[in-house]
Amino acid sequence: MNKVVVNAQEALADIVADHQTLAVGGFGLCGIPEALIEALKNTGVTGLTCISNNAGVDDFGLGKLLRTKQIKKMISSYVGENKEFERQYLNGELEVELTPQGTLAEKLRAGGAGIPAFYTQTGVGTLVAEGKEVREFEGKEFILEKSLTADVALVKAYKADKAGNLVFR
């Protein structure tokens, strides 16, 4: 089966839908899948939960989807530099789950490996721990973090082959 497509719109056709959870690659604004984000914006899907390192800026990255109110929830480690994000959050229009960067990466890795949850020391004694199970191991407290899985992952790759293998730069 040839998995190579002509453009980002074709890549998302019959894959994205309202109320999905998306994992969106990149770190800050580096390596984000700009073409896929633009194509996703143009689909008009709504009610999205986006798992990403950050929420973009006002008119770039996931900021484009925030501006069109396609995102209902952000799961991120960093959300600064986006006034629309701030406005929606403060007005109760956007749900936010702040997660430390390493924990966010582990939540996705564990979810991909079929591990439903794990314990970590990161966040113990902070707002991150509120409402979470705390357990002691070898005299140290840990909080239980639930893993994350996504319906669709958007990544930026340098090139792909017909089997769908990707090369990154």
Structural summary, described in words:
With 169 residues, this protein is an alpha/beta fold. The protein has helices spanning 8-12, 34-43, 63-67, 83-90, 101-112; strands at 21-24, 48-52, 71-76, 95-98, 117-120, 134-137, 140-146, 152-154, 159-160, 166-167. A five-stranded parallel sheet has the order 4-3-2-1-8, with no helix packed on it. It has a three-stranded antiparallel sheet with strand order 5-7-6. It has a two-stranded antiparallel sheet with strand order 9-10. A hairpin with a 5-residue loop joins strand 9 (159-160) and strand 10. The longest helix is centred in the middle third of the chain and has 12 residues, at 101-112. It is globular.
Total strands: the figure is: 10
Proportion of helical residues: 10-25%
Strand content: 15-25%
Number of helices: 5
Structural class: alpha/beta
Which H/E pattern describes the elements? HEHEHEHEHEEEEEE
Main sheet properties: 5 strands, parallel
Distance linking N and C termini: 25 Å
Shape: globular
Strand arrangement within the widest β-sheet reads 4-3-2-1-8
The whole-number mean of residue pLDDT values reads 95
Residue windows where pLDDT falls under 50 for at least 5 positions:
none
Radius of gyration using CA atoms only: 17 Å
